[in-house]
Amino acid sequence: MLETEPLTIIIKYMKIVFLGTGEAFDENNPNNSHLVISKEAKLLLDCGFTTPYQLWRYNDNQNLLDAAYISHLHGDHYFGLPALLVRMWEEGRTKPLTIICKKGFAKKIKEMMEYAYRAFSSNKFEYKINFIEVNPEDHIKFKDLNLSFALGEHSSEVLAVRIDNNNKSICYSGDGMFTEQTERLYKGSDLVIQETYLYDKKTIGHASIVDAIKMAERNDIKCLALTHINRNLRPKIIKKKPSSKKVKIIVPNPLDKYKA
After folding, report:
1. What's residue 192's pLDDT?
2. Can you give the chain as a three-state secondary structure string?
3. pLDDT at residue 46 above 80?
4. 110-151 tens-digit pLDDT
5. What gap in Å lies between CA 78 and CA 201, rounded to an integer?
6. CATH architecture for residues 8-250
7. For this structure, is 26 an active site residue?
8. From CA 79, how far away is CA 137, in angstroms rounded?
9. pLDDT tens profile 195-242
10. What pLDDT was estimated at residue 13?
């Protein structure tokens, strides 16, 4: 059914906008990135090199975001920050922005900003950027959101995140194969956004669709969103979507114009 809003999953007090669901080099599907909207907060999950364009297509308000979460330091997950931050400055943002990331990442994010737009963040920005660095197993509160973290398995250090609000929960893997720690994090959640690069083949640092569905079934997850699917595999998955008797499976499209 066609409508004017992007594809969203409503979870009582939180809304998810799937800005992009693609892997790093998919020319048809922007980088894997999502917007969490609650009563008090708008939180961006990852910001790859194509993410700013998708966010601006959804809403170009320079004051829209309260925070951004960076799961790991691969380009398709954080190289979009310079464009995002500078455009917000250019359009007059004065509202502070929080960047949440793993301990040790803040320094590298600041260095990347300097390479992209030298001295902008330190000398020209009229809004403050606050960093919150976290470790695996940490728990923090941001506005009305409770965030918890666990270490995933990837070629770069990656933290999966669980977001709880009013007894509802959303989890996001970033990239990476799930681990015992992330499975504990995901258990019983309402929605898990899991990267699944291949269908049933194992590859270092990535989950497969078959394994992700089994993981969701044994952890009582209500809905599993399959993202970051290999660009050549994705069209086949869209035509014949995987299913489960225990878990709702969705394969979201970026800025889709229909409601699932």
Report:
1. 97
2. CECCCCCEEEECCEEEEEEECECCCCCCCCECEEEEECCCCEEEECCCCCHHHHHHHHCCCCCCCCEEEECCCCHHHHCCHHHHHHHHHHCCCCCCEEEEEECCHHHHHHHHHHHHCCCHHHHHCCCCEEEEEECCCCEEEECCEEEEEEECECCCCCEEEEEEECCEEEEECCCCECCHHHHHHHCCCCEEEEECCECCCCECCECEHHHHHHHHHHCCCCEEEEECECCCCHHHHHHCCCCCCCCEEECCCCCCCECC
3. yes
4. 999 999 998 887 788 999 999 999 999 999 999 999 999 999
5. 27
6. 4-Layer Sandwich (3.60)
7. no
8. 26
9. 999 999 888 899 999 999 999 999 999 999 999 999 999 999 999 999
10. 76
Name the catalytic one among 26, 66, 76, 175.
Answer: 76
pLDDT value at position 203? Answer: 86
